[in-house]
Amino acid sequence: MHNQIQLPATSPFQHDQVLAIAISAVHCQYGGYHQEAPQYHEEQYYDPPHYQFHYDVRDEHTGDIKSQHEQREGDHTQGEYSLVEPDGSLRVVKYVVEGKSGFQAEVQKENGKYKPAPEPSYRKPEPSYYKPRY
After folding, report:
1. CA distances from 66 to 60, 94, 104 (A)
2. Where is this region: Disordered (predicted)?
3. Hey, which of 46, 49, 75, 124 has its CA 20 to 30 A from 115?
4. Domain presence at residue 90
């Protein structure tokens, strides 16, 4: 005699219930409650820029004479720089930057303040005659 298991008869309605429970179990496993991972968001707050600087270079030997100073508070920047041109004149530039108006400069030139830079000179090198000994 063969071993047989006899199951009770099922109706199509019971079969649909079992299928619905199985599908629900699968959906609960993969599509259940889901919370987004927290996103890091850093608010950046900066104080309005504020600085001031100044420098001077005065090398009479090389003729390198220049200076600059500038200060800024928020969107307002103003300053001045000067330099000695090769012709000996002094160029002074005063400038202002105000918000969206851009860079506005006033240029002044003062003649005869310094002696002009020497003209560049070039001297052709003397030929060199060298006969190596072998």
Report:
1. 11, 14, 21
2. 58-84, 107-134
3. 124
4. yes
